[in-house]
Amino acid sequence: TAATQPSTDWHLKENAREHHTSKFSSDELIVRRGQAFTVTFNGTEEPEQNFIFVAETGPKPSKATKTLATFGLSSTVSTESWSAVLQSSSSGSVSISISSPHNAVIGRYKLSVQSTSGDSSSTASLGTFVLLFNPWSSGDSVFMPSKAECEEYVLEEFGIIFAGTKNHISSFGWNFGQFQGDTLNICLSIMDRSLYYRQDPVTDVSHRNDPKYLGRVLSSMVNANDDQGVVLGNWSGKYEGGKNPTSWTGSGEILQNWKKSGFKPVRYGQCWVFAAVLTTVLRCLGIPTRTITNFSSAHDADGNLRVDEFYDASGNHLERGADSVWNFHVWNESWFTRNDLGPSYSGWQILDATPQEESGGIYQCGPASRHAVKEGEVDLEYDCPFVFAEVNADCMYWNYDSATGKKTLIFSKSTEIGESISTKAVGRDDRVDVTKDYKYEEGSTKERDIFKKARKKLGLEDKFDPTAPTPREVEQKPDISGKFKVAGSLEVGKDLNLVLVLVNLQSESKTVHVNMTAWSTLYTRKPVHEIWKDSISVTLSPKEEKRFPIKIHYNEYQQRLTADKTIQVTAICHVEGGIQVLVQRNVALDNPAIDIQVLGEAKVNKEVDVEVVFTNPIDTEVMDCVLQVEGCDLLTGILELRIPPLKASEKSSTKFKLIPSEAGLKHLLVNFTCDKFADIKTFKVVNVID
Computed from CA positions of residues 515, 518, 523, 524, in that sequence, does the dihedral angle turn out positive or negative? Predict the structure, then answer.
């Protein structure tokens, strides 16, 4: 007989509570795999009546690809296969408990029931539901034993991303918003737009039970390269036709824009944007995920575990070769088992959605087992050599003469790369250092042994290396040492004060000619504008230390600073009769402060006033002031407020109202921008009570 649409009761509230999906605001059932859920529908339970349930997903459901399951009523629940157990039946309605296997394909399913009574049978559609990964269930490949970690890495919608430089770590809040609006539907459509799906939808969907497969696919889909993915990267310093990557405060706006535009890549992103969006997507699907910041991060383009940097005689950093060292780089770690590698490689896996190098012909990276990276097992899938280099590469600094094309090694350093690797603490807004999980202690024999092991596995140890320093270059020791010290505060709007400290290491006098430059850079250390240059000649007595104060005035750098607020200061020291010495420092400036106050008590569904105060710290007027506010469960979408220009030292106070929708500790994110200061970010914890 024809299908009759029974009125299905999905028990949305109870099922969501049991399955940790209450934060989704949806009229559709959202449950996790390997766990029972209850559904009630019209039907009569008579002894001679048989129910057969059909759950199906994907474009061509089949049993062979595990995208179609048919199952009748059984007496007990199974976690190995789909099963249904009768819970109760009353006049005209039946309640059934349905369980999916631990390794079920995730995604949107159709559920229908065939009932046969005597010789008549009918099929009725019960509707659709969405099935997600289940980190709370011990049989799942994403199982995370700690409940507090599940709360943080799956359910928490607020995050902190670390940035700046290794000497001066800064941080900003991010609104992941994985449960807001139709984020889940957008995540499902991301999967259906990947190259993998387009080439072979049936195989792609059948692999969606595997977090390592999905992690890799999604790392390629979050960037726009190859597949019209979500975010278009831009590291030029010019962002016309889109938003400056530093101006985003959450993933929601990005995912919404992608959908609204008919799935055209959103302009523009840099590493933390890719990592934050990937965090949102993976947490939404139920894979525990966090962002990781690596300071002094190597981008080793040629796979020789070495990055080469070039400078001219004046101390200008030259863009030669594809290698680079970034002040910081942000990627992801996701938690799942590696049955392809073995138990010791399970746990945190590195995924990187920033398009840096191709892997398997497209811009994707990972999952690389963090344990494999630490042990130098660079032959293990996926992309271990690239990640190993990001935290371990040796650094070579060269002097390059463009007239002759001659390169001279200035010095090499093996302890420069991969420092203060950082992530947000579980349940607290603090920084946790995870460097020791990526490598053994810098300078230890173990660390060098692992580096040699990795070189050997990559077949690098016997190869003649044309750029390698000659023994003479290595043996020649510098006569002087130098460093830049910061004197005073590092704040946009104030003069930058540094001290160049030079020390004569020898017992005879040395004459040194120093060429100094300061450039504004991106966080990738790409030089954008020259800000300042100077040169001095100095004689150092035996073992003498001399200090040279350097002042770079605000009006010298103000027009040239990038939104990353970073300046690279370089001194190349030509020592008479000795080898050159390179002294450099990457300085990240802080924005002035902005203050948020919640005026009164924040209660669910009640208006509360918030005041944001900013004082113009410079002696000129600031214009084009805009305040952007967002925060899950505090307001919907993004509030944008225009603020009148502020004269020198003038204080502005802006008030707006919030209506919190849920109790608990919530984070309000604020971003203030004007013509002189880009993206002053802060956040405030708001305790909302019932």
Answer: negative
